[in-house]
Amino acid sequence: MKYDINSFQKFICYKHKLLPESNTEDLAKISESVCGLHSARLPTSYVMVQSRHKKPDHLKLWREIYKNKKLIKLRCMRKTLHTISLEKAPILHKSTLSYRLQPFNKIYKDFSVSNPSIKEIKKCITNFLSDNPQKPLAIINHLESERIIKKHSTDECKIIYTNSIKYFWEDGTLCYINNNKHWGAEDRYFGLTEKIYPDLHLNSLCTESAINSLVVFHIKSFGPVTVKDISWWSGLPLGEIIKAIENCSHILPVKITSFNEIFYIHEEDLESISKFSLDYNFVRLLAYEDSTLKGYYETRKRYVSERHYNKLFNQIGECRASFLVNGFVRGIWSWSKQMKKIEYNLFEPIEKELTNILELELEKMETYLNYNIKQLQLPF
């Protein structure tokens, strides 16, 4: 049996908490619905939450990460920052850890830093952070004062110590903290993960189990998807993804009209889609690099016609801020610093009723952005 990709679009919006009946105040559920809030740019995750939250709270995301400790920001898929619940964090972390550590191991090798020296650097950092998180520069200055590395120049030592902070952030020893509550600004600190998040155990899973879980997690969130979709999104090799799919009996192959590729979907979704119906029009604004679009690559044209593809995606594959109309991208939007309002471009004219809905959504987002960007104007 072949399925029409269009039949899944509204259902995916429902799963991604973009519809009124699936909006929630639980930010952990919002982050899990899209396998993590894309967070490479500071404001992206906030705009994503605004589009999915029942009652947007301008400080709630910051509180959930840094005060309530229900979410954590870490690098994972494609070595990109994501914000995710503590429950799912070990999956994202462990499944991608090996290739994330490679560049930092190379720097150690290039500078002939021995394993005993690396262990000594780690001990020095953890002792220094045992009481309170510190800024990266303070950590580097402390390492320099301890003179752990003696056979390198001052400049080389700075490179090694900077590399060490990044390495121990990647391996889960350290966690990132942003002490600036403004959604568009950063005051970066690093703390000990075991002290900041005492209930989190990032390395509790073996790599194979984590990869299996990540692939199933992605398919449940974004399915139907292809192996290449998952590989591009995760950064994992095709072979490992195919193996993970074979290890899960609940993942089913399906054929989609207008596509030659084999798609995969979780059996629960295949059952749910047959019962799902939506009899109203909706418009939702998506953030720059919104995870709803970032979950695909090979099959991105499900969201937009080929003639408008380059308007939505730039030359390096990044997704511009856009708006969904009944599950399909019909235009893009941006924030005007000068006018303090949203400017938007439709790919094609839309019906008057949809235009009215779009204007209401734009007004809500403008109110949200103006509240947040009174003191600071940054792109997102």
Report the major sheet: 4 strands, antiparallel
Which regions are unreliable across 5 or more consecutive residues at pLDDT < 50?
Answer: 375-380
By DSSP, the count of extended strands is: 12
Radius of gyration using CA atoms only: 22 Å
For the biggest β-sheet, the strand order reads 9-10-11-12
Classify the secondary structure makeup into a structural class.
alpha+beta
Gap between N and C termini, in Å? Answer: 42 Å
Estimate the mean pLDDT confidence. Answer: 94
Cα shape: globular
Figure out the total of helices.
Answer: 16
Helix content: 40-55%
Instruction: Tell me what portion of residues adopts beta-strand conformation.
Output: 15-25%
- What series of H and E elements makes up the topology? EHHEHHEEHHHHEEHHHHEEHEHHEEEH
